[in-house]
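Tokens in:
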């Protein structure tokens, strides 16, 4: 496998594909918003306020807008 192609695929996955897992994969000491922010912070492409606005919008789109400030342990697993 060509390592350059592997690096390109990794870059695409990091920038365009994301997953948020329920229950044990969410960090329990972080809010829903903070859990979603983590991968974005790694990329360092946006300011903190822009990232928070984007995450708030995404959480709203999936019906979790009102729960953005709840800890992962306070979210339903079902």
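Residues out:
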């Amino acid at each position: 496998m060509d390592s350059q192609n592997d690096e390109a695929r990794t870059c695409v996955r990091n920038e365009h594909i994301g997953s948020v897992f329920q229950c044990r994969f969410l960090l329990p000491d972080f809010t829903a918003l903070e859990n979603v922010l983590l991968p974005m912070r790694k990329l360092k492409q946006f300011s903190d306020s822009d990232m928070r606005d984007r995450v708030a919008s995404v959480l709203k789109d999936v019906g979790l807008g009102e729960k953005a400030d709840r800890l992962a342990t306070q979210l339903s697993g079902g």
